[in-house]
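In line with agreed milestones, work has continued on tokenised descriptions of protein folds. One protein thus recorded appears below exactly as we store it:

>
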Amino acid sequence: MTRRHARSGSPFEDSIGFSRAVRVGETVAVSGTAPVWPDGHVDPDPAVQARRCWEIALDALAELGGTPADVVRTRQLIIDAADADAIGAVHGETFGDVRPASTMVVVAGLLDPRWKVEVELDAVVSVER
């Protein structure tokens, strides 16, 4: 089976040794994705952060031939339960018609203290695009 990788340009890809996303056969896994803009900026609003996370994750999925309709599972790691509604609403905007299996977990912290959310997704892409 062919193994393909997508890169996002994160400085951690080389130093830690990971890919933004990996496709093997029909399966695509997108790594934990943080709300960082190319210039390093992080917006403090949790909904804006969630949108940025999904934008990056879905761009990686698209690079490997997938679409939001192919997503079968999502994970959202948040640091404050008070942000769950805002972050969850963005998930609904993004995947409301797809309705993947999904988990949202409150964690003690994320790698960068500016981040309020980090996301992951898994997809099954049956047709090479």
